[in-house]
TrEMBL record:
Keywords: Cell membrane, Cell projection, Coiled coil, Cytoplasm, DNA-binding, Membrane, Nucleus, Phosphoprotein. Residues 316-537 form a coiled coil. It is found in: Cell membrane; Cell projection, Lamellipodium; Cytoplasm; Nucleus. It comes from Pelecanoides urinatrix (Common diving petrel). Gene3D superfamilies: Pleckstrin-homology domain (PH domain)/Phosphotyrosine-binding domain (PTB). GO terms for cellular component: cytoplasm; lamellipodium; nucleus; plasma membrane. This is Switch-associated protein 70. Its main location: membrane. CDD domains: PH_SWAP-70. The SWAP complex consists of NPM1, NCL, PARP1 and SWAP70.
Length: 586
C-alpha cells in the first residue's frame, strides 16, 4: 500500500502545485474542496463534505497550518483507497488540472495524449523526493526504451554530451522539461510522429499498464468448441482477452497463479501452433499465428508464472528498484570517500599546526642560542682586554686564572652540547616537513582513488548495458536456431514420405517384373519345345527353313520375342542353352 500511496502522491502533487494562489500566497479552500471531490470520485472513496468543512474551519490559517491539506489528504482520502479504481482515469484527472498551466506553448512533435503518457511515465521513474525530478540515469533508460521501440539505433555519444551539459547545471529534469525534450525530437531524428507515438504507447503499456505481451490469437470456446479470434493482453497475474485491440469489448480473463502451467499441443482439428494454459478450475486452448508467436507466448506466460511463484514484482519494476538501489549504493560510497577526505584534511591541518608549533619552538631556541653566543663573544673580548691589561699584574695569580680558564672551557663544552641539541631539533624539523609532504601525497592518492571509483562506476554501467544487449542477442539467436531446426525437421519428414512412396512404387514394379519373368519363362519353355519338334523338319528340308538365331551383341538387341525383351546376360544364357540343345538333337 506504501508504494501505491507514493505513486498517487506524485500525481496529486502536480495537481496541487498547479492550483492558483490568492493574494496572501495561499491556495483557496474552494479550490481544495474541488480537488478533494474529484480525487474521491476517481479513487472510488466516499466523499465526506462535513469532514472537509470541519478540517478547513473559517478560523483556520489554511493549508500551511496544522490543519493543512496533507493531513486531510492522508486521513480522509489516501488511507481509504482500496485499489479498485482506474489508474489511467486518476492520472488523466490530475493531468487535466496541471497540463494547461505548465505544458509548453511551443509546437511539439508529440500529441497531447502522448505528452500525458510521458507525464505518467515520469511519475513512475522520478525520485521519491519533492520537487519531483528524473535523474540522468532514468532519462537514459527511458530514451533507450523509446529508441528500441522505434527500431532505431541508440546514440550513446549524443546522450553523453547532453548528460554532461545537464550535470553541470542541475541534478535532473522536471516533467515539463522531459516532455519538451522528447517532443523536440532531439533523440528521435528521422522518425515521423506516428512512429514516436507508437513507441511512447508501447513503453506506456509496459511500464504503467504492466502489459508484458499482447496480440491476436485464436481461442477455443468451452461450450460451443468453436475457434474465435481474440486480442490477448498478458499482465503480471492475469491474461485478458478482448474482441479487438481497442480494448472496448472485454470477453474474459485467465487468472494466473503459482499453480498455473502452460504446455505445447500437437496440431489438431485443422489448427496449428496450439498450446494449453492449465489453471486450477479451467484450461484454455490457444492457437497462435505461427510457431514463433507460439513460443514467445509460452515463454512469456512461463516467466510470469515463475515470478508469481517467487513472489517477485514485474521485470520493469524490479529493474527500476535495482537501479535505485545501485544509485543509493554509489551515493553512499561517494559520501564515505568524502568523509575520509575530510578526516584526512583534518589530520593534515592538525599536523600542520603541530609543525608550526615546532617551528616556533625552534625559532625561539635559535634566538636564545644567538643571544648566548653574543654574550659569550662579549665576555671573551672583555676577558682578553682584561688579560692584556693585567697580564703583568696578575702573574702571581696565574694559577687562579688557569682555573678560571678551565671553568670557561667547561662552559664552552656545555655550549657545544647545546649546539648539538639544536642540530638534533633541526633534523626533527626536517622529518616533520617530510611527514607533511607524505600527508599531501596521501591526499593526492585518495583523490586518485575517488577518480578510479568513478571510472569503475562508468565501466560497470557499460558492462551491464553490454550484458543486457548480449542477453537479447542470445535470445534472438536461440529463437532463430529453433526455427531453423524445425524447418529442417519438416524437410526431412517430407523427404522420408517421398522415399517411402518411391519404395512402395519400386516394390510394385519388382512384383510386376517378377510376373513378367514367369510369363517369359513359360514362353521360353514353349519355344524350346517347338524348336525340338522342328529339328526333324530341318533335317529333311534343310535350306527351306532356317531357325532364328540370336543377333549380334550391340546396344540395339533384337530377339524373336521383340526388341530388347531380355538383357544381354539373359540372351547369352539362352544362346548357350539353344546351342546345347541343337548339338544334342544332331
Amino acid at each position: 500500500m506504501g508504494g501505491l500511496k507514493e505513486e498517487l502522491l506524485k500525481s496529486i502533487w502536480h495537481a496541487f502545485t498547479a492550483l492558483d494562489l490568492d493574494r496572501s500566497g495561499k491556495v483557496s479552500k474552494s479550490q481544495l474542496k474541488v480537488l478533494s471531490h474529484n480525487l474521491c470520485t476517481v479513487l472510488n472513496v466516499p466523499h465526506d463534505p462535513v469532514a472537509l468543512e470541519e478540517h478547513f474551519r473559517d478560523d483556520d490559517e489554511g493549508p500551511v497550518s496544522n490543519q493543512g491539506y496533507m493531513p486531510y489528504l492522508n486521513k480522509f482520502i489516501l488511507e481509504k483507497v482500496q485499489g479498485n479504481f482506474d489508474k489511467v482515469e486518476f492520472n488523466r484527472m490530475c493531468w487535466t488540472l496541471c497540463a494547461k498551466k505548465n505544458l509548453s506553448k511551443s509546437p511539439l512533435l508529440i500529441s497531447d495524449e502522448d505528452a500525458f503518457k510521458v507525464w505518467v511515465i515520469f511519475n513512475f521513474l522520478s525520485e521519491d523526493k519533492y520537487p519531483l525530478i528524473i535523474v540522468p540515469e532514468e532519462i537514459e533508460y527511458l530514451l533507450k526504451k523509446l529508441t528500441e521501440a522505434m527500431g532505431a539505433g541508440w546514440q550513446q555519444e549524443q546522450f553523453d554530451h547532453y548528460k554532461i551539459a545537464l550535470n553541470t547545471s542541475r541534478e535532473g529534469l522536471s516533467v515539463w522539461e522531459l516532455i519538451d525534450l522528447i517532443g523536440s525530437g532531439q533523440f528521435s531524428k528521422g522518425m515521423d510522429r506516428q512512429t514516436v507515438s507508437m513507441a511512447i504507447n508501447e513503453v506506456f503499456n509496459e511500464l504503467i499498464l504492466d502489459v508484458l505481451k499482447q496480440g491476436y490469437m485464436l481461442k477455443k470456446g468451452h461450450k460451443r468448441k468453436n475457434w474465435t479470434e481474440r486480442w490477448f493482453v498478458l499482465k503480471p497475474n492475469i491474461i485478458s482477452y478482448y474482441v479487438s485491440e481497442d480494448l472496448k469489448d472485454k470477453k474474459g480473463d485467465i487468472i494466473l497463479d503459482a499453480n498455473c502451467c502452460v504446455e505445447a499441443l500437437p496440431d489438431k482439428d485443422g489448427k496449428k501452433c496450439l498450446f494449453l494454459i492449465k489453471c486450477l478450475d479451467k484450461s484454455f486452448e490457444i492457437s497462435a499465428s505461427d510457431k514463433k508467436k507460439k513460443q514467445e507466448w509460452i515463454q512469456a506466460i512461463q516467466t510470469t508464472v515463475s515470478l508469481l511463484r517467487a513472489g517477485s514484482p514485474p521485470p520493469h519494476k524490479e529493474a527500476r528498484q535495482k537501479r535505485k538501489e545501485l544509485r543509493q549504493k554509489l551515493l553512499a560510497e561517494q559520501e564515505e570517500v568524502e568523509r575520509q577526505m575530510k578526516e584526512l584534511q583534518t589530520a593534515n591541518e592538525n599536523k600542520q599546526k603541530e609543525l608550526e608549533t615546532v617551528r616556533k619552538q625552534l625559532e625561539a631556541a635559535a634566538a636564545r642560542a644567538a643571544e648566548e653566543e653574543k654574550k659569550r663573544l662579549q665576555t671573551q673580548v672583555e676577558l682578553q682586554d682584561r688579560f692584556s691589561l693585567e697580564l703583568e699584574r696578575e702573574k702571581m695569580v696565574r694559577q687562579k686564572m688557569e682555573e678560571q680558564v678551565a671553568q670557561k672551557s667547561s662552559e664552552l663544552e656545555q655550549y657545544l652540547q647545546r649546539v648539538r641539541e639544536l642540530e638534533e631539533m633541526y633534523k626533527q624539523l626536517q622529518e616533520a616537513l617530510e611527514d607533511e609532504k607524505q600527508a599531501r601525497q596521501d591526499e593526492e592518492t585518495v583523490r586518485k582513488l575517488q577518480a578510479r571509483l568513478l571510472e569503475e562506476e562508468s565501466a560497470k554501467r557499460a558492462e551491464l548495458e553490454k550484458w543486457h544487449l548480449q542477453q537479447q542477442q542470445t535470445i534472438q539467436m536461440t529463437e532463430a536456431e529453433k526455427q531453423e531446426l524445425e524447418n529442417q525437421r519438416m524437410i526431412k519428414e517430407r523427404a522420408l514420405q517421398v522415399a517411402m512412396q518411391q519404395l512402395e512404387q519400386l516394390e510394385l514394379e519388382r512384383k510386376e517384373a517378377l510376373e513378367q519373368y514367369e510369363e517369359v519363362k513359360k514362353k521360353l519353355e514353349t519355344a524350346a519345345n517347338n524348336t525340338k519338334s522342328w529339328k526333324d523338319k530341318v533335317a529333311h528340308h534343310e535350306g527351306l527353313i532356317r531357325l532364328i538365331e540370336p543377333g549380334s551383341k550391340n546396344p540395339h538387341l533384337i530377339t524373336n520375342w521383340g526388341p530388347a525383351a531380355f538383357t544381354e546376360a539373359e540372351l547369352e544364357q539362352r544362346q548357350k542353352s539353344w546351342k546345347g540343345k541343337k548339338a544334342t538333337s544332331e
